Structure formats: structure tokens, C-alpha cells
């Protein structure tokens, strides 16, 4: 074991390696007996392709570049594909990112458009396609822009002809219901085809605040008639609904303080843990009913497991394996269950659980160690005490290297990571971006601050009208506790975050003296601007619950906005922004920097063409990671090898 100062340990995990392994499989499904999913391609412009696993176990991409299987509905998207087998041949439909059209595709052929292009605003967009071959249609969510503004938009369940007759004709798209709600999910048909169920909600609610579960009859002409609300409301979030094989309706509701499962209104497995989560993407699935009557579930308190629920006994049996987290994507076929799992020492993989044998195995996107796993961090699940004695959940990743240690008496620098959302959480999984820092001798602490999901409604309600207060306080409480207990160097603490985490980072730098520097990625910086037209429709009234109604508390928007207090910032910072970001647009950063001008605060502002909200291209991620490390090196007095120096201006 050699001795070198923290932050100067040589590491085989470089930025290019971390970027190459960014992203994960999503939106799993069965096409006949085959398992299919979408997969990231950072080296191919950040696109997502569709991958199939044949019955012989071979994996192959279905669509070559430039096809990009990704929807922009509510900007965060949703399930972008569906598939089945017709006359022994796979038939799939998918949304292409560039034009947002829905396409029909048979492998070996050329994709054919099923939907038209609209020149109005953001055009026509589609999500959650469901192939109904017997009807000759694809049922899905239609998002249609009616003007040039980001909130000039309507959404409705719709049916697209499978024969391509709507490819140039908007009128050939059949709307399934009258427009009743601002937001809807895709309708799920009952086993007998006579009823359909879907979720809906309206501004200013977000789906984790309150949704309605609607059920309608399916008429002979294929319309959804007489819709009625059977669950949910302004203060009850139903996150998912689906039909069991016997025709009963299953749904996940937080009416008891936790997202639990219900069958026709009766609780199936009442527990103080979550069986669902925040609906950021349409078509997320935390449970899937099997023909046997059992239900595959993703559940947990904090971290999530894949299990099988027996509705009659209420018992859940979890799959055994190295996975500590499962994502909100499930598919079932006979007795087979497919999900996406990951763990502290393994990246996201496609996992199959055989309900007959109870055996779980990896069937796709298998984790392969790109370096000796001895270089991976060893996370510690911690609960800290925040202001007023409240609990604050966190994952602490100490510096770790198999061949190096620091000189006796030296304490390591630490970076607090604030997750996005903010109604979300940091999962306990292997992340090579974290390993990029810990393997060099820089600790990381992911904070699931008050407002995070995974710990019940009361925990996530802590952020109601307290955004910029509770999140900032909780991150600071973790950072200072690490310093007080002798885990971290008090003088070498940093904070970083993207999107809502970028907000928390900037608010921490302008409102506290805890951190020596910070990295702010595609942030919200000006609440008033963001809440009055500078963002997209889905989150355009999110601040009503996070901060309060603008018309009633305008001074709160001013007081909490980092852009209004650029004069308070003294710590060096790095600001990273995609120029195509419509969720947190560049104007937020530009306004902040204009107000900072002349303050002599060392900083750098890096922008990236072709990047939106969240970086997807390998070259962008490499530049961003190396710039971030260079910032810490300059501020903390570190000497990492082979890292380009970030130029800090004032």
C-alpha cells in the first residue's frame, strides 16, 4: 500500500470510461418469447436504441443510427415502444426522438411512419403505445401542441391506425375520450376488452400530489364512454393501475401514507414501504399482474427489491441476488417476470425471475467489470440528524483505492451530491461517476433530503413550500456531521447537483458558508422566471407546492432565488448547461452570471450544443467530469494526474 495525499491517487477509472457506462436499460417488454428493451448509446450521439434478446440468448440492436427510441411527451417522456408477434414475425411500434412520429417496424425492413408531423409549437408527440392488432390500432397518449407557447398543449388517449392511414392525416387519429384533464396516462384494457382504466390529473398538482383513477366502458365503436373516478383525488396519488387476469382492478395508492397496492379498493399488503414511486415518465410500472393471480412488485423503503406478492395471503417473496435496487419497469409473460436491477457493485442489468422456480438470473445488458472491482466505492447507508431532530437519509462513499492510502492525520475532501427532482431520490447502485472521484481519494455523500421519495408521503411532504430551505439544510447537516465526526475535512467540502439538485447547490452556495466550492448542472436559478413561462408545461406549476402560489407569496420567490442573490456567493463554482434544454433553459444561467459580473468570484461556464436536460453524449460527459475534478483540484489543493486544467475566470 503506497501513501499519497487524498485527491492524487492514480485511478483506472477515467472520464471516458465513466461516460461509456452512463445510462441504463429501460422499458423492458416481451415480444413473443423474446425479451426486448431500450438501451443507451452515449458514443452514438446519446441516442437510445431498441435491443432484442433472442431465445438463444443472443442480443442485437433492432434499429441502427440515427433512429432514437425516445418520447418527448411531458418532456421527460415515457414508454416509447410496444411489440408483438404476427404470423411468426415480430411487429413493433416506436417513437423516434427527432420527429416524435410513431413508426411501425418489422425487423429486416424499414420503419414506416404511422403519425403525421405538425408544424404547430412542439408538434404531435406520442407515449405508451399499445398494439391492438385485432383492432388494427395502436392506443397511446397523444400530446398535441395548439400554439407556440410551452403550455399551449392538450393531452388525450388516442388510437392510431396500424395501416399507416394517419401518416399524413391528423384527422385519421381517433381520440378515445373527450378532453377532460390536462395530463393522462395510457388506457389499460381489461381482460375482456369491455373496460379501460387510466390516470389523470390537472394543474397545479403533480402526479405525486394527487391523481384520479378513471374507469370507462369500451363501446362497440371503440370509444371510452362514461368515465368515472374510482380512486384518487387532490390529496391521494395513484401512481399506476392495471387489470388482474380475473378482471379485478389493481392500483398503487398512497392514501395510507405509503404507496401500497389495492384490489378493487381493498389493501393487499399494507406496509410502511413503497410499492410505487413518482410518475416522472408515462408507462412506469412498479407492479405487473401474472395470469396465476400473483403480482410481480418493485417495493421497499429507500432501496427497492423485486418480489412476488400473493394477494390472498399478503406475503411477498423477494428475488435473491446481488441487486439492491430495481427500476420502475416490469413485464410478464406466463410465469416469467422481467425487470431492471442494479447493486453497489454492479450496473443496471435486465433480470428475469422465474416464478415457478423462484430463480432470478441476468438475461440482458449484463454487468461486466471494466476495471478491477477493487476500485469500486464501498457505500454506507446512513441516517443523519437534521434541524429539529429530523432524520436525513444518505449514502456515504468514502475514498477507496486498493493500492493507495493517505498520509496519517489527513482528512479527505468530500462532495455532497444533491439529486434532481426534487421529488425523487438517489439509488444505491454502482455509479462510475462516483467511482471516478472516490478512487482518486475524494469522498461522496448522496443526500436523500426531506422531500425525497422512498420514505412515505410525510417525508416527501417536508419540502412542501420549503424548497430551498429543507433541502439546503439537510445537505448541510450531512456535510457538517461528516466533518464533525472526523470523516471529512471541514475546509474541503463541496456540493454538486443537476436540475433541482443544481438549484439546491446554487441555493447552498448563496445561502450558507458550508462549502468551499460547487458544481451546478442545468439548474433552476430564478424561481419567478421559471414559474412564469421559462419551463415546460408538466412542471410549469410545480412551484405552487414547492414554494407556494406566486400570486400570494411573490417575495418568497425573490428571497429564495440564487439569481437574486448572486452578490452573496463567494465560493468558486462550475456551471454546466445544455443549450437545447427546454426544462431548465440557458437563460436561467445567463441571468445569474450577468448579476455576478464584477464580483471577482472564480468560476467557469461551459455550454454544450445538442444537449438537453441531462447529458447524454459521451464527449459532453467527459468534458464535464474532467472540468469538475479540475475545479476541486484547484480549490482543495489536489494533484490529480492527466486532467486538463479548467480555466476559472471572474
How would you describe what is shown here?
It is a single chain. The chain has 650 residues and is α+β, with helices and mostly antiparallel strands. The chain has a domain at 371-529 and 558-636: Alpha/Beta hydrolase fold, catalytic domain (Rossmann fold). The protein has ten helices and 39 strands. The strands form nine sheets. An eight-stranded mixed β-sheet has the order 31-32-35-34-36-37-38-39, sandwiched between helices. Strands 14, 15, 16, 17 and 18 form a five-stranded antiparallel β-sheet that branches. Strand 23 and strand 24 form a beta hairpin. Helix 4 (470-484) packs across helix 5 (500-511). The radius of gyration is 24 Å and the shape is globular.
What's the CATH C level of the domain at 371-529 and 558-636?
Answer: Alpha Beta
What ranges have pLDDT less than 50 throughout 5 or more consecutive residues? none
Helix content: 10-25%
Ends apart, CA distance between termini: 41 Å
Mean pLDDT: 97
- State which percent range the strand residues make up: 25-35%
Question: Tally the helices: what do you get?
Answer: 10
Largest β-sheet summary? 8 strands, mixed
Tell me the strand order in the biggest sheet: 31-32-35-34-36-37-38-39
Radius of gyration: 24 Å
Estimate the global geometry from the Cα principal axes: globular
